[in-house]
Amino acid sequence: MGLSTHVLDTMHGTPAAGMRVALFTTAGDTATLVKEFVLNQDGRNPDGLLIDNDSLKCGTYRLVFDVAAYFKACGVALPEPNFLGKVSLDFGIAHADQHYHVPLLVSPWSYSTYRGS
Q1: Who contacts 33 (Cβ-Cβ below 8 Å, separation ≥6)?
Q2: Maximum distance among all alpha carbons in the chain?
Q3: Beta-sheet strand order (sheet of 111-113)
Q4: What is the pLDDT along the chain (117 residues), one digit of tens a residue?
Q5: How high is the pLDDT of residue 104?
Q6: Domain layout of the chain by residue ranges
Q7: For residues 53 and 37, what is the distance between their CA atoms, to the nearest angstrom?
Q8: Strand order in the sheet with 87-93
Q9: In the CATH scheme, what is the code of domain 2-107?
Q10: Are strands 59-65 and 99-106 parallel, antiparallel or unpaired?
């Protein structure tokens, strides 16, 4: 249960180790930072769940992935301005008793997400 994320670098075919991520709660135009973290070698939050089952609440959230900084750190020559700088995913949690997994598949030029399990 709870909330988790996982990022895969589709350019290199690896987890996006070292990518910075921020989690926010949202209410209208207001976003409140919950936590910031750097993905581990598996492309996941090193502390496990972003929000555990007991703390997960129904509502709206935002994950912000620092894609450009990650690919620059990997040595990828990116144009200025970058096609993708930060990828922001806004999503809702309707059932706090269920697990919400928000994966990101990303390259410097594209991304995809879905509700995982």
Answers
A1: 22, 23, 24
A2: 43
A3: 14-15, 2-9, 99-106, 111-113
A4: 899 999 999 999 999 999 999 999 999 999 999 999 999 999 999 999 999 999 999 999 999 999 999 999 999 999 999 999 999 999 999 999 999 999 999 999 999 999 998
A5: 98
A6: 2-107
A7: 19
A8: 30-38, 20-27, 59-65, 87-93
A9: 2.60.40.180
A10: unpaired
| Structure-block tokens of residue 64 | 């912000």
Half-sphere exposure of 112 (CA within 13 A, CB side): 6
